Amino acid sequence: PLGCAGSTPVSGTQSLYSLSMKPSAKKHHIPSNQIVWTEKNALWYAEQYGDHISNDLTINNIELNPNDIVIDIGCGIGTAVNIASKICNKGKIYGIDPIETMIKIAKKNVDQPSNIEFIIGSAESILLQDRSVNKAIAINSIHHWNDYNKGLLEVNRVLKSEGSFFISSDIVNNDDCGHGKGPLHTNENIMRELKNAGFIDITLQDYTLDNDGIHLIQCKKV
């Protein structure tokens, strides 16, 4: 995905959260102050790196069902949303991202738009009703939310009772979650914060394919 799920919604500017990338996950952890989003560089970035295997690895390992209602928080160009929409063909997939350019690209990328809705917004302010989805995902984005405490409260709010939240991040050598230092830079820290936010049944599993892989954390709303 592209964009920054924790940013204030913007139009083609500001921060970058991790985009899943083809050649090396190392390369997509770029400090946000080094990127100014224009439609031109967003299109280039999407073309180069928008279909990394982390999207498939996540969607194919979270046991989606045809009737699921799912939100992808930090959907970027909509790669994971598009994959999920084909599985949840009787449900609904929401993609939320604060960067308007990414949402524009995502809308052009979808193959099955009837069960997909893209929203410009942030993790801290999800424009959905309470208890409106039964699964939420964040692929390479939670580390870049401006306020992860608010973001986790919002995820809890929009999830139905016993709904599931999935957090995936690229496996990068010498970097537990592939996102440098910070309050959520290790899986253990993420799992602790999920527990503090009231989530239960928190588990961690790694999935790999060829030379790529993800850490996948799963938890549930009470």
Looking at this protein, list some descriptive labels:
222 residues, alpha/beta, Rossmann fold, 7-stranded mixed beta sheet, 7 strands, transferase, Diverse_substrate_MTase, S-adenosylmethionine-dependent methyltransferase activity, SAM-dependent_MTases_sf
A few lines on this structure:
The protein has six helices and seven strands; from the N terminus they run ααβαβαββαβαββ.
Q: What does this protein look like?
A:
This protein is an alpha/beta fold and 222 residues long. It has a single domain, classed as Rossmann fold, CATH 3.40.50. Helices cover 26% and strands 24% of the residues. It has 6 helices and 7 strands; from the N terminus they run H-H-E-H-E-H-E-E-H-E-H-E-E. The chain has helices spanning 39-49, 53-59, 79-87, 100-109, 148-158, 187-196, and strands at 69-73, 92-97, 116-120, 133-139, 159-170, 200-209, 212-220. It has a 7-stranded mixed β-sheet with strand order 3-2-1-4-5-7-6, sandwiched between helices.
Strand content: 15-25%
CATH homologous superfamily name? Vaccinia Virus protein VP39
Q: What low-confidence regions span 5 or more consecutive residues with pLDDT below 50? A: 1-27
Could you give a short account of the major beta sheet?
Answer: 7 strands, mixed
End-to-end CA span? 28 Å
Spatial strand arrangement across the major sheet: 3-2-1-4-5-7-6
The first-level CATH class is given as Alpha Beta
| Total strands | 7
CATH architectural type: 3-Layer(aba) Sandwich
What structural category arises from helix and sheet content?
alpha/beta
H/E series: HHEHEHEEHEHEE
The pLDDT mean sits at: 82
Organism: marine metagenome
Pfam family, one: Methyltransf_11
InterPro entries: Diverse_substrate_MTase, Methyltransf_11, SAM-dependent_MTases_sf
GO molecular function: S-adenosylmethionine-dependent methyltransferase activity
